[in-house]
Specification:
alpha/beta; 14 helices; binds uridine-diphosphate-N-acetylglucosamine
Length: 417
């Protein structure tokens, strides 16, 4: 297993480029199943989760060509409609193949993902919506088995805002017979990016980015070319790294309009922001002021930035409250941050973080993707050396994170355990 060795206490200074968004790429890759033509994608990040999705699609017979950040997919000959447990268990987003498979091929056998480190994360809304669209869906030996001749439009109201649930149901509705309305839809920029890609493929979707989606089903979709949006969570993680190291970091090729609430919190903690069309520069002098946050669906504060802001508050000049409302078990980074000298107590879904003047290096263990980022950021700010273990979590969602950090002057190396 690989680890990151970090000598902390260096200011991060310089410029890096944001990668394509993992959470937009994964549903868009799955959307390739909806057409027999080529889907040509640009700005696809090289991440473990992207490789897993490509492997899953290739196993179904989808032809995949990759050259750097360009990926071309062709699903003209799909030989299997099975998403096996081995792949699904390593990446829950594999469930995004469920609806495209049923919509175009009339059947899908997708393994249920099971639990995950941050919470139970059921997929009941995906299944309920697909049933409303007319599919026969049953759970059999750990698999969701869905069949349908042709899906029919329906009025769906999801019980909660679900990102991949909305994406899956949109991918079912685009090929359904008639109109579908999805209420309580997720408004995340990644959902909008998927809808834009589907529209380029000939889908008729209105309301992307609002809580109500209107989809008029079409008989078939055609090929398209699409550039994936920038990863707002990756960019946000680098902004926080700049703040806690009292640095000066410019992130280019990002979309500031997707990150307003995060940028506002950074401003409130005392960071100086310069914002252009597709870049953000974050400068910090001194310790941050505490900023309380409450995670909610977009456009509110993203749960995927909660752990990083926990680290920021660990070094703040006062006390902040961090309330997690999306996932029931997303404070796994807290015991690790305590090992670095942070002062945090947990009361139910709220962490009370009392800032300390400095953290000190230690060996810490990554537990999930965003927790890993928060620990790397904490180690960059900590005095002395740290080892971050189990970084395969980090590799799922951050492209060459240590290279980008080194580019900013961090003392960080990847080593084999
Ligand atoms: C996506 C993101 C993830 C992010 C999360 C919330 C991808 C690949 N992953 O995950 O990075 O942290 O959105 O912004 O895009 N729920 C149910 N039943 C369902 C579906 C969801 O109870 O059928 C619950 C979940 O357990 C959770 C909440 O709804 O408590 C929101 O989850 P959801 O938006 O679905 O998260 P994901 O799409 O899995």
């Amino acid at each position: 297993m690989q680890q990151l060795k970090i000598n902390g206490g260096h200011r991060l200074v310089g410029e890096i480029r944001a990668s394509g968004a993992k959470n937009a790429t994964l549903p868009i890759l799955a959307a390739s199943l909806l057409t027999a033509d080529d889907l040509v994608l640009h700005n696809v990040p090289d991440l473990a989760d992207v490789r897993t999705m490509l492997k899953l699609l290739a196993g179904m017979g989808v032809k995949v060509q990759r050259a750097g950040t360009d990926v071309t997919l062709n699903a003209s000959t799909v030989t299997s409609t099975i998403a096996p447990y081995d792949l699904v268990k390593t990446m829950r987003a594999s469930v995004l193949t469920l609806c495209p498979l049923v919509a175009r091929f009339g059947s899908a056998d997708v393994s249920l993902p099971g639990g995950c480190a941050i919470g139970a994360r059921p997929v009941d809304q995906h299944i309920r919506g697909l049933r409303q669209l007319g599919a026969k869906v049953e759970i059999d030996h750990g698999y969701v088995r869905a069949t349908s001749s042709r899906l029919t439009g329906a009025h769906i109201v999801t019980d909660m805002v679900t990102v991949t649930g909305t994406e899956n149901l949109v991918m079912a509705a685009v090929l359904a017979d008639g109109c579908t309305v999805i209420e309580n839809a997720a408004r995340e920029p990644e959902v909008v990016d998927l809808c834009n890609c589907l529209s380029a493929m000939g889908a008729r979707i209105q309301g992307a980015g609002t809580p109500v989606l209107y989809i008029e089903g079409v008989k078939q979709l055609h090929g398209a070319e699409h550039t994936v949006i920038a990863d707002r969570i990756e960019a946000g993680s680098f902004f926080v790294a700049s703040v806690v190291t009292q640095g000066d970091v410019l992130v280019t090729h990002c979309q500031p309009g997707h990150m307003e609430v995060v940028l506002d919190k950074l401003r409130r903690c005392g960071a100086q922001l310069d914002i252009g069309n597709d870049w953000v520069r974050v400068r910090m002098d001194g310790r941050p002021q505490p900023v309380s946050i409450r995670t909610v669906p977009h456009p509110g504060f993203p749960t995927d930035m909660q752990a990083q802001f926990m680290t920021l508050n660990c070094l703040a000049t006062g006390t902040a409250h961090i309330t997690e409302t999306i996932f029931e078990n997303r404070f796994m980074h807290v015991p690790e941050l305590l090992r670095l000298g942070a002062h945090i107590t947990i009361e139910g879904h709220t962490a009370i973080v009392e800032g300390v003047p400095e953290l000190t290096g230690a060996t810490i263990m990554a537990t999930d993707l965003r927790a890993s980022a928060s620990l790397v950021i904490a180690a960059l700010a900590a005095q002395g050396s740290s080892t971050v273990d189990r970084i395969y979590h980090l590799d799922r969602g951050y492209e060459r994170m240590e290279d980008k950090l080194r580019q900013l002057g961090a003392d960080i190396v990847r080593v084999d355990d």
